[in-house]
Fold this protein.
Amino acid sequence: MNFPNPFFRWRPHPWHGLEIGEAAPSIVNAFIEVTSFDAIKYEVDKMTGYMRVDRPQRSSSMPPSLYGFIPRTYCGDRIGSLSKHTEKGDGDPLDICVLSERPIDRAEVILSARVVGGLHMIDHGEADDKIISVLNNDTYYSNVEDINDLPDVLIERLRHYFSTYKLIPGKKETDVFVDRVYGRDEAKDVIEASMADYVDMFGE
């Protein structure tokens, strides 16, 4: 039997075994962990690569987009150096939100995402950027190239969600905040920094 090249005899680890995409940082592969229907926060277990239940969402707000990460990225010192508030990243792969006209109701899928901007978020003193993108072959978003091409209400939903999704009911303060929204060019710089951080941490 002839197998395709490369061929994975076993399931590849979503973080380390998948490719970032030939057109990165403009168009990247995204591994989706959470859909806009999920009231549970799921994330990939770093050791096994399988999905783990992290926690039920504490607030009543639902994710406004698909949410996952970009393979073969890491938020380390280079990511931290891009921030005015901290000197290090959160030690995770770079997060990405993907907007799609048609609802996608399942996670653990890989898709091609066109980068249009990002949110600079600080989580307990660590840089935790959220790249904003659109599904690359989605005709509805075909003319969207930069963050300013999206309706303001969509950006505000994303900003509000990430500003509040770790709030504990009854607790007034949190160490998580969205510092600012940025456009495509800065988002590409963030992705390139996370790619370099990944090589520093794990090698090629």
Summary: The chain has one domain: 27-202.
